[in-house]
């Protein structure tokens, strides 16, 4: 089992003319294989800062990030191995895929860079990954991103993230830019992949309905601070913090919200 520990992490940004801005304030949690944690909060709450720190796109001002009890290396092969274990699915499938390259290139590249399979098996592994995310391989593999729908692009991004055979996946608002009619299909895919591969998933969202139905635990982030955490049903049905109650009340009936998503359909 792989465990990622986010321990006492704070992050400050220097803002010209305004001094320091505190984006994260002493945030701690553990993400382990086979578990899904939803990180819930409005825009500006610090959710994406956590994602960037976990994927080493940003460094914390203070605190530690440990993988299986060891600090993350800052450079070299150790950092590369960490990034192979902790992969990210970005919010925007339109921007995260290079429009000049084929789908084959996007999925093959991490296989070759990380030497996941021998060179002679790269094509077969690429096809297997695209099949895992339920795409028609022959129809998409030699196309470019602009030739696919938004849902198909996000599935390609998920296949690319899985190519390095990670233990943990950071999904930063993975369906927020997709049509409502295809969001559920992508979320169900992530849930199935999580179970099949025993992945640990940090699901970052502002949507309490999907957080409840797709996560084991919910953490509520407000102004960079975790104000509430617990089992998903407990947090949603019996929120203790005023901010959590305000989020819930903004979506009065999460069950109805979820049911409406189901009836809309799940194809991409």
Q: Layout of SSEs?
A:
Layout: E1 3-15, E2 19-32, E3 36-40, H1 47-54, E4 62-67, E5 70-71, H2 76-85, E6 86-89, H3 103-113, H4 122-132, H5 137-140, H6 150-162, E7 168-172, H7 180-197, E8 200-205, H8 208-214, E9 217-222, E10 225-231, H9 232-237, H10 242-250, H11 254-264
Parallel strand pairs: 3-8, 3-9, 6-7, 7-8
Antiparallel strand pairs: 1-2, 1-4, 4-5, 9-10
Descriptive report:
By secondary structure, the chain is an alpha/beta fold. It has one domain: 3-Layer(aba) Sandwich (Rossmann fold), CATH 3.40.50. Helix content is 40%, strand content 25%. The protein is built from eleven helices and ten strands. The strands form two sheets. A six-stranded mixed beta sheet has the order 6-7-8-3-9-10, sandwiched between helices. A four-stranded antiparallel beta sheet has the order 2-1-4-5, covered by helices on one side. Helix 6 runs parallel beside helix 7. The longest helix is centred in the last third of the chain and has 18 residues. 41% of the residues are buried.
**CATH homologous superfamily grouping:** P-loop containing nucleotide triphosphate hydrolases
Describe the largest sheet: 6 strands, mixed
Q: How would you spell out the order of helices and strands? A: EEEHEEHEHHHHEHEHEEHHH
Q: Tell me the radius of gyration.
A: 19 Å
- The separation of the N and C termini measures 33 Å
Q: Which architecture does the CATH hierarchy give at level 2?
A: 3-Layer(aba) Sandwich
């Amino acid at each position: 089992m792989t465990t990622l520990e986010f321990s006492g992490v704070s992050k400050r940004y220097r803002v010209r003319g305004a001094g320091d801005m505190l984006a994260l304030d002493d945030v701690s949690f553990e993400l382990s294989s086979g578990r899904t944690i939803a990180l819930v909060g409005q825009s500006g709450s610090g959710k994406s800062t956590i994602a960037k720190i976990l994927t080493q796109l940003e460094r914390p001002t203070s605190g530690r990030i440990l993988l299986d009890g060891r600090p993350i290396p800052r450079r070299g092969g150790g950092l590369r191995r960490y990034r192979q274990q902790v992969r990210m699915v970005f919010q925007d499938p339109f921007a995260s895929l290079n429009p000049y390259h084929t789908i084959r290139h996007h999925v093959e590249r991490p296989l070759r860079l990380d030497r996941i399979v021998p060179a002679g098996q790269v094509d077969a592994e690429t096809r297997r990954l695209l099949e895992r995310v339920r795409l028609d391989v022959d129809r998409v593999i030699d196309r470019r991103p602009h030739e696919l729908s938004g849902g198909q692009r996000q599935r390609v991004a998920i296949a690319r993230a899985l190519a390095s055979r990670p233990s943990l996946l950071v999904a930063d608002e993975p369906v927020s830019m997709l049509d409502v009619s295809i969001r559920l299909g992508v979320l169900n895919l992530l849930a199935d992949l999580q179970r099949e591969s025993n992945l640990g998933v940090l699901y970052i969202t502002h949507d309490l309905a999907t957080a409840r139905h797709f996560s084991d635990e919910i953490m509520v982030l407000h102004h960079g601070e975790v104000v509430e955490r617990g089992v998903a049903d407990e947090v949603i049905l019996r929120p203790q913090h005023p901010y959590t109650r305000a989020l819930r009340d903004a979506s009065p009936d999460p069950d109805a919200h979820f049911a409406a998503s189901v009836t809309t359909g799940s194809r991409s």
